[in-house]
Amino acid sequence: MAGVAGALVAIFFAATLSLGLAVVAVAAGGEIASFCTVWFDDVTRTGYFEPVATVPEHQRRGLGKAVLWEGFKKLQRMGCTRVFATAYDPPADALYGSVMSSYVLAETWLKEL
Ligand SMILES: CC(C)(COP(=O)(O)OP(=O)(O)OC[C@H]1O[C@@H](n2cnc3c(N)ncnc32)[C@H](O)[C@@H]1OP(=O)(O)O)[C@@H](O)C(=O)NCCC(=O)NCCS
């Protein structure tokens, strides 16, 4: 798998090995169609989704929402009380906007080198 989706899948497996908190939607052919890695801090009871991706040919079928809902369930079982996710483009904003309850504006500093 090439491009952004391939890079995200690589991050997904690295993070999953150390945490074991992941949700995967598998297509009928056996390939990964959509996934999210779920991070959880049990001190603040805060969860975070990163990365989240649906392979392009499987997008717009509700798989992104489905993996996030499964992630919410996993987090709730661990005592999580709030979940964050960060989006940088319209499809990701649409996904998170469809399942999360509020938008929190974050300001990020940048130095161009
Ligand atoms: C963002 C992404 C994960 C969405 O996955 P998806 O499986 O297509 O999402 P879904 O089919 O579950 O759609 C969820 C909602 O987002 C909307 N949506 C998804 N893609 C959209 C797009 N390109 N433009 C407008 N709305 C979009 C859907 O209409 C749906 O809204 P609704 O429930 O109100 O009808 C996918 O586009 C992707 O992998 N993008 C690249 C990686 C990325 O940006 N990840 C997120 C940040 S880590």
When the domains are counted, the total is 1
CATH topology: Aminopeptidase
Rounded Rg: 14 Å
**Helix fraction?**
25-40%
Strand content: 15-25%
What CATH first level would be assigned?
Answer: Alpha Beta
pLDDT under 50 segments (min length 5)?
A: none
Name some characteristics of this structure:
3 helices, binds coenzyme A, 37% helix, alpha+beta, 113 residues, Aminopeptidase, globular
Can you walk me through this structure?
The structure is a single chain. With 113 residues, this protein is α+β, with helices and mostly antiparallel strands. It has one domain (3-112): Gcn5-related N-acetyltransferase (GNAT) (Aminopeptidase), CATH 3.40.630.30. It is 37% helix and 24% strand. The protein has helices spanning 3-19, 63-77, 90-99; strands spanning 22-26, 32-41, 46-54, 82-84. Strands 1-2-3-4 form a four-stranded mixed β-sheet, with helices on both faces. Helix 2 crosses helix 3. It is globular and about 40 Å long. The structure holds coenzyme A. Coenzyme A binds next to strand 3, helix 2 and helix 3.
Write a brief structural summary.
With 113 residues, the chain is of the alpha+beta class. It has helices at 3-19, 63-77, 90-99, and strands at 22-26, 32-41, 46-54, 82-84.
SSE layout and pairing:
Elements: H1 3-19, E1 22-26, E2 32-41, E3 46-54, H2 63-77, E4 82-84, H3 90-99
Parallel strand pairs: 3-4
Antiparallel strand pairs: 1-2, 2-3
Coenzyme A is lined by residues 4, 34, 50-54, 59-65, 87, 89-92, 94-95, 98.
